[in-house]
Amino acid sequence: MFDFDEKILLYPIDRENLSIIKSVENYQNIHIHRLVSFESWGHVGEYYIINGIKVDISYDFEKALDDCTTVWITNSWNEIDFTNYIQPAIHVANKKGKRIVCSRELSEKEKILISDIDLTYISHSSFMPITNRDSRVQEIRTPIISVMSSTEYCNQFYIETAIGAELRNQGYDVLLVTSRKEGVAFEANTIPDFMFSRNYNENEKVISLNQYIRYLETKKQPDVIIIGVPGAAMPYHHKYSSDFGILSYEISEAIKPDFVILSSPCMPYEKDFFLGIERDLYGRLGVTVDVHSLSPYALDLSESSMEKNLSYISVDDYYVQKTINKIAFDCLMNLNNTKGISGVVDRIINKLAGGAGTYIT
Amino acid sequence: MSDSPYIHPFKTSEQCYFYDVNTDKILKIPEPVYDFLSNQNNSQADEATRSFIQDLKENGFLRTDRVEVSEHPATFLLPYYLKNKMHQLILQVTQCCNLRCSYCTYSGSYKNRLHSNSIMTIETAEQAIDFFMKRTKDIMNVSVSFYGGEPMLNLALIKHCVDYIKKRYYGKSIDFGMTTNGTLLDVNSITFLANNRFDLIISLDGPKEIHDKNRRFAKNGEGSFSVIMDNIGIMKSLYPSYYQEYVRFNAVSDAKQILSCFNEFISDEEVLDEKKFMLNYVTDHYTERKIDIDDDFFIDREYEVFKFFLSKMGEYPKEKTSYLLNSQFARMYIHCFKDIDIEQECIPRKFHHGGPCIPGVTRLFVDTSGRLFPCERVSELSETVMLGDVNKGISLIKATEVLNIESTTHSKCKNCWVYRQCSICVARADDMQNVSAVETNKMCPTVCRSMEEIFKDYCVLRELGYSFNEERLQGEK
């Protein structure tokens, strides 16, 4: 997707793409050179250390563009007018001869408005789904690590890519199938597009996903497969049901993971919360959670109740660690930093390399 | 933990009820059960009553759980709320006013500042805006409101602020708002307000004879009613859509004039619309002065409430009821009409009564000199409620104290049945030096009485067949 010498400007920055920025820390081939946001979004002035270099989040798009080769237009949590803020940026970048990559969800109308521009769209991996009724789910022999979330904003994408990078560093051959389409930028595969399509029924999706993973397994012969499960693993609360965990159910029928990580919002849970969620997940999906993590977002319960939709507050790593220390649950780790990732990879290797049945060599 | 169930029994003229604090529900009960629960005299309970009580207990009611540790649920995350989730900025652009309303909190009758010529500078305003906007990371839609004195006396600053925000802080949904006495509106200012879709609240206490009794010009003591009505007429004719959607009125009652005259006033005046009015009473915060309620006012108000409820039942024409009671009816929904999907087993062990908002987060009030307060209703002279300033920021210690006012009264609060519904915040609990148990306790009887009346009214309406539901609530809004 990106050449080694490409200097990338990521725009517009808010919570929707912070996970991507953090993930880049582990991937030498992606050079995020500039980060641009809006002053009103509250991120201008923050910074990230990317490949050892401090990159500030600024607000001046044109100035940041000057020393970049490529613009990556991303999704955002904040709603923004396309014609006033995205389209002009694309035109400016195009005029200055920059390569433009777009992972932002655009409507057909918006795509028409920029149809004269040479753009690379990032989308979910494509695979021809199987609609043959006689097809069956086949066994995947390679160990599978499944990364799931209780809700949105659980830093899942970072966990998937960071574990993948750490395992590679330790010499393992990793097949990474990310929950988000931006995984393509990290030379990974993604959950294929048909899983999000209404044109296929649940049976077809389950069989086809299984076949997709089998196909990749055969082609790439990895030591381990990491699968990021999009959406919520199951309804967090009956009032906030998201997609009811339907996608995670379909995925659980297609592949049986050997190690499961579940990330949840950072709240002062009792241990019973984790035991309860493990029980529920086992009942719904037949999976056993090996490790829990807490994300750098807490739930704003009061606002969630008023808005009838989950609402979040950004917290920092200090708060996450403090909360984890207080809960003191053995299976609960802080997977938002390299130390935590290193720790969970040790557990993964211990389990998958030591157990009977499927194992990594 | 107390041994007695955490409940409050009450009666209407037809039925008996109790409010179960742990489950936050109102239940209808037979009279013998009511007598038993009111008197807690076990020996007088017959078999049927004991069986009923047992059933209630088995279904999770009549629990004795109380809050053991007083701590507001937002305390743990307060630093992050203050850093990332501020909702509304209120800028006091001037302390000057062209009216001298007799009940004004700045009139000298209250423990608060007086009218002055102090105005906010451009630098302070920009600093306050920058301070606020940097702390809205986790909010998609925020509000910036302008306050006074009379904010229109510093319209130039307001225009500058709007311009500054639009130039620098584009990309986020920002609503502008203002509370004004309405006397200084002209074509230019109305155009500015309409173009920027200001949520406008105009103070209008009622028909001329009522409004002019209290709201008079400083320069000559004359009433302001005619000027305001002319300005409203101009606004409505120039920008009818804006007027319809964004303009509301706040009527302040001194508990002397009767409500029933208001309807005639609204229907007589072409420019007014009944849906737009809110009613508030002269405040008794920060004053030793007693607000006397005239007997005539009381009788009239209760009669208006009675007619209002009849109209809800379809038994009386709505247009003959007081429009000012709509917002009060909405309170009934807030306190009584609960989402039945929320199953509460018991009140949390660590909790706080329902009064305080999150200071600096729900609202951040900035005075002319850049000092920070939790809202515009606190006394600007009180160190208790001053959270900090735009240079140094908000003191976390101060914000935590203002959030956790129950710390001074927990031993009493934890047994109070209005725990969840309490409306006492720091503005009520402030004695100008500290969060005060004495000041809080002064308010408690009023809060309890008021809540019981709301519960009773709610139950009576239900008895008469009124159906509370979400759609109706939206309609009421």
Main traits of this protein?
heterodimer; A: 361 residues; alpha/beta; Rossmann fold; 2 domains; seven-stranded mixed sheet; globular; B: alpha/beta; three-stranded antiparallel sheet; 17 helices
Description:
The complex is a heterodimer of chains A (about 350) and B (about 475). Chain A is of the alpha/beta class. Chain A contains eleven helices and 16 strands. In chain A, the strands form three sheets. Chain A has a seven-stranded mixed sheet, sandwiched between helices. The model of chain A has no long low-confidence stretch (mean pLDDT about 90). Chain B has helices at about 30-40, 45-60, 80-85, 120-135, 155-170, 185-195, 210-215, 225-240, 240-245, 260-270, 295-310, 325-335, 395-405, 410-415, 425-430, 435-465, 470-475, and strands spanning about 5-10, 15-20, 25-30, 70, 90, 140-145, 175-180, 200-205, 245-255, 275-280, 350, 365, 370-375, 390, 395. With about 475 residues, chain B is α/β, with parallel strands linked by helices. In chain B, a hairpin with a 4-residue loop joins strand 1 and strand 2. Chains A and B meet through helix 9 and strand 15 of A and helix 3 of B.
Helix proportion of chain B: 25-40%
User: Which descriptor suits the 3D outline of chain A?
Assistant: globular
Strand arrangement within the widest β-sheet of chain A reads: 3-4-2-1-5-6-7
Largest interface: A-B, 30 and 25 residues
- Biggest sheet overview of chain A: 7 strands, mixed
- What is the approximate shape of chain B? globular
Measured on Cα atoms, how large is the radius of gyration of chain A? 20 Å
Cα separation of the termini of chain A: 30 Å
Average pLDDT, all residues of chain A = 91
Low-confidence stretches of chain A: none
Number of strands of chain B: 15
Strand content of chain B: 5-15%
What CATH calls the topology of the largest domain in chain A is: Rossmann fold
Question: Number of DSSP helices of chain A?
Answer: 11
Seen as an oligomer or otherwise, the chain set is heterodimer
SSE string of chain A, helix = H, strand = E?
A: EHEEEHEHEHEEHEEHEHEHEEHEHEH
